[in-house]
Every structure is written in C-alpha cells, then in structure tokens.
DNA sequence: AAAACAATTCGATACTTGTCGAATTTTAGC
DNA sequence: GCTAAAATTCGACAAGTATCGAATTGTTTT
C-alpha cells in the first residue's frame, strides 16, 4: 500500500475514532439516505440537539470529518448542510472487502 | 445504530487511526493472504524490523488490535502469530456498503 | 544450568486532542 | 441599521496516548 493512501486512511479512521464524531457521521449518513423523500436537512443546529455537546465542539468535529474527506459541507443561507462523500464510502468499502 | 455496536466500531477505528498500527494491521492482512502458500508467519519479530519502533511499542499496539477484535494472536513457542479476524472485516465492510 | 532470544510489563515523558466559555463573524428578518 | 440566530474562531485546560529504556517473564538452544 502506498504511503499516501495509508495516510488518507489513517485520517479517515481517526475522524471516525471518537464516539461523538462517529455518531455525527452516522447521522449525516442516515440523513443522506432519507434525503430522497424530503429536502436535505441541515446539521450543526439539528444534530447539536441530539449530541450532548456545544456548538464549538460540533463545528470542530465537522471540520475534521471534512478534512478527512468523509463528508462535504455547503452553506445554505444561515445553515450548513452536510453530505457524505460517496468516494470515501467506496474507498473504505474496498479496503475491507478482502 | 445501537450504542453497543457504535462502541465496537469506535474501538476498531481508533485501533486503525494510527500510522504504525494501520501498517501493522495491513502487514498482518497481507501475510494472511499469502498464508495459502507458506506457513503463517509470526510477527513482533518479523514486523518489528519493518516498522521503526521498539518491541514494547509493538507489543502495546498488538494488544490494542486484539482488544478491538481486529486480529487474534496465538503463541507458537517462542513466537507470536497473528491472524486477521474475518468477522471484523465483514462487519466493517457492511458498514461502508451503503 | 546457562546463555540467547522473543515478548511483556512498568514508569516516565512528551505530545495530541476533546471540550468548554467568551468573543467574533455571517446571515435573516424586522 | 438592529436584533436574533447559526456557526466559527480563539485560548485554555484536562484527559488520553505513543514512545522509550529498563527490568522481567517465558522459551529455546547449547
């Protein structure tokens, strides 16, 4: 395995290696799946209520997920919407398919 | 997702979230794949030469991989053999298959 | 039994990081 | 413009952890 690829994987795993961030990621994942029916839902505001942490912490965690390229975010006016990055899912899926 | 399942996943991700441990895991993974031809190879001794860390550190990292149920170990006399846990691979594969 | 080798345990240390409060920025609605 | 709401930035602190050296345990070999 190339060093570059290993680094990318480490970054992703690290991003998912904390309870709050994993939950954050799963929420976004499930929201994405449910996004067929309704419009995409926002986050920091919506999810902050589910997780028991403050806004600064959510912001920090989201940035790490983005930095690991697990999700991407988009500003929609006052809100911030999040989407799972399909590339990342595929990449990780392949890694564990042996 | 159940809390118990989330905790297990976090443990696995944390175990893979460090460069040396990921490399360790990948080495074991590749060794397992190559184990059809030859006999299973041992580790701390063999792998320690590839990774640039001391024996105590390897021992510590291996314990974490075992604790996360990503691998299992078996004593073979003086040596310690490692095998990837297929259950874990499947579990993680499913998680990213969406 | 003695020496050599593989691995583990134990403490200590340096570094990383999750969280918060306070202050700041950005956008919406009045 | 002013106020409220959503999100970000900043600084600080507590907790966790990767690594090492030294000492220890267990096993093989001579």
What attributes does this structure have?
homodimer; 98 residues; alpha+beta; Arc Repressor Mutant, subunit A; 59% helix; DNA-binding
Give an overview in words.
The structure is a homodimer of 98-residue chains. Chain A contains five helices and two strands. With 98 residues, chain A is of the alpha+beta class. The first copy, chain A, has a single domain (3-95), classed as Winged helix-like DNA-binding domain superfamily/Winged helix DNA-binding domain (Arc Repressor Mutant, subunit A), CATH 1.10.10. Chain A has a two-stranded antiparallel sheet with strand order 1-2. Chain A starts with a helix and ends with a helix. The interface between A and B is medium-sized, with 23 and 23 residues. Chain A binds a DNA duplex (30 and 30 nucleotides) through residues 18, 20, 42, 44-45, 48, 53-63, 75, 77-80.
């Amino acid at each position: 395995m190339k060093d570059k690829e290993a680094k990318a994987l480490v970054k992703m795993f690290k991003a998912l290696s904390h309870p709050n961030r994993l939950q954050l990621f799963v929420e976004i994942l499930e929201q994405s799946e449910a996004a067929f029916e309704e419009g995409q839902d926002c986050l920091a505001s919506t999810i902050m209520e589910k997780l028991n942490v403050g806004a600064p912490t959510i912001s920090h965690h989201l940035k790490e997920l983005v930095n690991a390229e697990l999700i991407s975010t988009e500003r929609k006016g006052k809100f911030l919407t999040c989407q799972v990055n399909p590339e990342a899912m595929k990449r990780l899926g392949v890694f564990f398919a042996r």
